[in-house]
Here is the input.
Amino acid sequence: MKNNKNITQQIVAIAIGSALFAVLMNYGGISIYTNTKLTTAYIIPVIIGAFFGPIPAALVGFIGNFLADTIGGWGYWFDWSFGNLFCALFIGSLNLYGVRIREGIYNIKHAIIFSIIAVLGNAVSFGLITPFFTKIIHGGELVITLAQAQVAVLSNSVVILIVGNIVLFALARRYKKQNNLVEE
Amino acid sequence: MNDAKFIIRYSLGDSFLEKLAGKTKVLLFFSSIILMMASFDLRIILPLFILNFLFFKSVYQEIKILKFIIIFTLVMNILNFILFYLVNPTTGTELSQTFTLLFKFNDYYVITYETVIYFITRIFKIIGTLMISLWFILSITPSELASGIYGCKIPYKYATMVSLGLRYIPDIYRDFNAIKESMQMRGIELDPKKASLFKRIIANTKILIPLLLVSFERIELIASAMDLRGYGQLDERSYYSDKDLTKTDQKVIYFAYFQLLCAVVYIVLNMFNVVPKLWVL
Amino acid sequence: MKKPIISFKNFSFKYHKQQKETLKNINLDIFQGEKLLILGASGSGKSTLGYCINGLIPNQYHGSISGECLINGKSLIKSSIFELSKIVGTVLQDSDAQFVGLSVAEDIAFALENKNMPRLEMKMLVKQTAEKVKIAEKLNILPHSLSGGQKQRASVAGILHENIDILLLDEPLAALDPVMGKEMIELIDELNQVDNKTVVIIEHRLEDVLHRHIDRIVLMDKGEIVAVKTPDDLLSSDLLTKYGIREPLYLSAIKKMLGGLKQKNDLTNLEKIDLTPFKDYKVTNLPLNSTKNHSEVIISLKDVKFSYDNNEFIDIKNLNIRKGERIALLGENGSGKSTIAKILTGIIKIDKGEIFRINNPETIQEIAKVIGYVMQNPNQMLVSDNIFDEVALALRLRNYSIEDINERVNNVLKITGLYSMRNWPISVLSYGQKKRLSVAVCLALNPQCLILDEPTAGQDYRHYREMMEFIALLNKKYDITTIFITHDMHLALEYSDRALVVKNGKIVADKDSESILSDEKILNLSSLKKTSIFDLSEKLNLNNSNFIKEFIEKERRINE
Ligand SMILES: Nc1ncnc2c1ncn2[C@@H]1O[C@H](COP(=O)(O)OP(=O)(O)OP(=O)(O)O)[C@@H](O)[C@H]1O
Ligand SMILES: Nc1ncnc2c1ncn2[C@@H]1O[C@H](COP(=O)(O)OP(=O)(O)OP(=O)(O)O)[C@@H](O)[C@H]1O
Ligand SMILES: [Mg+2]
Ligand SMILES: [Mg+2]
Here is the structure.
């Protein structure tokens, strides 16, 4: 029975996370290249991952991208959605290596692992998976797609490393202070 | 204060597309987009493009952002094409294995008939995809989307993720504004008239953390509200916004299945190299 | 006798994040078909007790439970939230969060959808219930374009149609106008009488709830139940005053001015109180309040028009607000009060017309230096880590010195009763505490004009009194203009000199508060109500104005 409650919460978390992702994608970003933006949206799957695990994070990446395309009216680009799915899976895997944000556990060691995974995950997702799908869906030119991918990998990695770490440390600190409350 | 920035429909008119049931729209959308993605053949892409362009026209609305998006997509893709061309001027020829020279800048930069076809196909494909996406968005409400996804035999929990997400986007946008106003009232200047762009960017990121916290706290509350009203207790669910399928719906659904069939056939033929990688006359 | 449907035995609960227990040693039996009111100061644990009935504790909020709680004979710890959702229907205190549907209709239908009810049946039921709470014409409206009161009605509609035995309503009246509040109480009563549902109401507005019969009242304080009594027993005791709860006004007047109660029964209704012992009471002719002469206009509106959609809405021909004035903004739910407040503070950009504000500020930020604004919904105002930082934020941004900040923040936190929790995160606060915090944020800034959107909604008497007295003091000392939006007519009488009545976006009356609040025509027109003090005074054939003034004066003296 306990499980059921988690399911509703996870569904809502995925929904709200996707909505946030979509809003940040459309609102808080600067376009730097086709389909590529310098955006803070990627910290959403990071946080969802920290709270709820990698699978919900991956769904946030995928559905969030779908919603972003929807409300932005950019049209659906499933090659990028799949890239996002995998990228979110990687960067949302924090609780697999011992991060417990709700208990305030996030330290330098975690930050290093997170950073490495973030860069690798980005490289795999946007350097391999997205170009692969672009090739089969749109019959694109590999050189261009790869160039585009490199820009995406680079810009995403930078944002995730900087903003992601800042937010994660901030959240961990916040939650740590929130226990053992007493009137004084 | 208004949400014109987003394209989300909450109530619908009575054009052909808008009147269809959610399930029909979802099926038609997916079959169209899959077919469009699968093929690289102008004989399929062109009619599909025309059909979907008409669909799009029937639900088109004067929304400023729409025009901008269409122009932006066009410009970006044309830029992309130029890049494509500069990198590899004979893409089309390589795909179709034929060479028909039209024009020659020098020995490397040549324009072949095949490459022209390639670019034409590609642009129709991309604009066509955009048209499909746009008519779909312009003709469906979040709850219809949910009931439509559920109607396609996908568990309703997934449908909820999508539709609830869509439903909360305006709320998040409003939260963002409310937090912004609250911050402004406390003394952060965010008015374009008074603060420089750089300052506003910095200040906007300060809003991010409260926005995240407010939103994440919401998760608990919304989940409680849903649990309290029995969400998830059964494997099935009915939808208030659902409609009975009409005869028209039935026909459209058959058409959607037909498109899916075409896509599957095309993909299979393509795997066995029966159809050309790029169709040229 | 009957068997209890809800039963707490030596029940305690501690939130995971707290060091101390929030509910202590609760013993309470609630019987089938009973109508129960839970009273208590803000933060005393009423909502928490409610969570134990509907299963949010332990399913959603984690913590440690000791003792026993049986719902319908089954232990709370063993029941799933689904099982409970079939027995208990809840209206949460925070009606924003309650709203999960895309439109009013879909939200009302949400529980039915989850039961997989066929669509036709569902549509009929939705229509019926919407009519019951008078929201039928808003069925296709999106949640965010509802006013605070409209939202509350919609969320009540969401649980009305189900076959559930227990209704749990957490402050169902907080945002309702007096007439709608009365109707809501009648509706709840009907559900209890006709459908024999067990009803548990959590409310601060005791007098309004007592409009209809209540079986028992549970009084809570600091997480404990201090009394479970019938209304008459409770009203004739002095427990309410002791625990800082507002008594019905007429009783308060009888107790404090007329020499005390002479009867022990039938206290819940002024009509039934024997007033003969008080017939000889004479009011002293109080000297007319030397009303200060307000001259300097600090805000003025001319031909201001604004609409959310294409329908005409706000239309204000001419409105001047002067320095030092105390204004109450009254009107029914959805009449446009909050909208006007947002216009004054520049959050809403008007479509037409002119607004003048003293010092000619232009941006929201500059306007806020002149006009402080407490929004109706506290959730939208609070952005910081903890309570102290929340209040300090604006002061820090305005470069006050550290000592200055500490002093000011601690001062307003003491006034709003939040000082002991100054290091707590915002997320654990009760709704009333959040609201008070949002008031504190504004008070710390000491602006020239203060606009408070329902500052006392969801507050207990003691806290509300302290807050309002402080605001009155600011007004006296620094000549700060105060404008507050309220549905509490007595509050308006006590703390304002001038009242504006809003209807359909227009100001339909603008006079001194006393004459507005005794003008039946205006009151009826805009869903307002006379307070029971008026009725009492009329029954005693006294001069209303003097009687009320004397009452206010007496109360103030007692509280000091
Ligand atoms: N999730 C939580 N975690 C920790 N403490 C909490 C939580 N929710 C509430 N509290 C604390 O428990 C106490 C009781 O809160 P509760 O919401 O039950 O009060 P209430 O009586 O309903 O007040 P109000 O009238 O203001 O709504 C408060 O001091 C509050 O700070
Ligand atoms: N953002 C919005 N978009 C569209 N309509 C809105 C919006 N906000 C409010 N309204 C509508 O404007 C009207 C006035 O709303 P407002 O919030 O000003 O009412 P109010 O007088 O404060 O009511 P209450 O006492 O219930 O808080 C309502 O009918 C509401 O439906
Ligand atoms: Mg409460
Ligand atoms: Mg309001």
Observations:
- Chain B has two domains: 22-141+242-271, 156-228.
- The CA atoms of residues 158 and 180 of chain B lie 32 Å apart.
- The pocket of adenosine-5'-triphosphate (ligand 2) is lined by residues C 144-150, 175, 308, 331, 333-339, 376 (CB under 6 Å).
- DSSP finds ten helices and two strands in chain B.
